[in-house]
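Preliminary data (for renewal application), adenosine-5'-diphosphate complex.
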Amino acid sequence: MFDKILIANRGEIALRVHRACREMGIRTVAVHSEADANAMHVRLADESVCIGPPPAGKSYLNIPAIITAAEVTGAQAVHPGYGFLSENARFAEIVEAHGLAFIGPTADHIRMMGDKITAKKAVMDAGIPVVPGSEGGVATYEDAKPIAEEIGYPVLIKAASGGGGRGMKVAETADKLKEAMQTASAEASAAFGDGTVYLEKYLGQPRHIEIQVLADTHGNVVHLGERDCSLQRRHQKLLEEAPSPALSDAERAEIGEVVRKAISAIGYRGVGTIEFLWENGEFYFIEMNTRLQVEHPVTEMITGIDLVREQIRVAAGLPLEITQDDIQLEGWAIECRINAENPKTFAPSPGKVTEFHAPGGLGVRLDSALYAGYSIPPYYDSLIGKLIVHGRTREETLLRLRRALEEMVVSGVETTIPIFLDLLEEADFVNGDYHIRWLEEWLAQRNG
Ligand code: ADP
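Predicted structure:
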């Protein structure tokens, strides 16, 4: 096992990784920008290294500075967290070329899943159901037209290198196809330097259901059930729950087994998430994330498995201690992503936190790097904490969520807490009756 790990991230996820390391007796090295010198992850780590000025491009994405920090501190492994360099295949390669372990999959798997076309082909060949669409990239309108007719309108034009919903356009009818392709391709070229697009059937009101997997380097793979992440605004998840209110035990077992076999066939290592759209009882693969997800705690709460600990053990070459039969899903868990943002306009609200009180009690977990007196810097994303509650049933979990939200105090900045309190008043949400477009419709009404 490693005795020192460098955590190449910031905020709550840097702290989350630090916590797992601490419990495993592993020392931690925090890296930070000049703006984060007083951050909690820096204060709690055993050592810290400043890696550059505030903009992420000069610090948290600064590969030479991060590698140097690992070398001077004698760290043996690098945990990338999520975001930043976590899905950067080149970074994984450079880490390994310096004799350090990358706590994540191989660079080849990151690359394979980072391109949506190669990802779709790889998982399809491994038996995972995908959204009907073009086989690979579509270069011209003339090529696209017959494919769109075959899959049926509306169709979605997606960028091979896409992310965060960019480079994605819907064409409702044939006469919109040409323009939608051009816009999607231009957007993708500008954002990702790759204008390759492909076609998919556009699903109207699906749910977003994702399966968590965990694989070691000895051929063992387990799945840890699903998370329902349908509550999204502009493709950003706001609230996630596990299990999904929509799936039966039989459906879960079936898709879980399909995914487990596929991940095994692909030879993947570490944690990963297979994202699906789910409509009328059918699963359609959309992408695989080759890293720890923001919403991983809901899975931890219902399985009792520390996913970061497992990631570290797998990266050290140890075999999984659990088999599929050991995994029991217990109760219900819901996570709210609390952002420092105006709860109506979603405008970022950085600044000094004057008062802070964390909710607690049975079944309540707060993953946050906040403290009273902390100044939220304006340079990074606005997530300031994840409130995760666990109960025996969904009903109990919803009651617990309300009381935990009511207990939480964050003064000095605006937060998205009021949105969740309002959401708990909404019958569709309480009944688990929602899809990926529901939240935006609800927010539009709410904010009139
Ligand atoms: P990104 O990497 O940009 O997030 P995804 O492929 O994960 O791209 O898709 C992002 C979101 O776009 C999904 O969560 C879903 O809301 C929507 N989406 C993707 N594919 C489809 C589809 N075929 N039909 C309808 N909506 C889709």
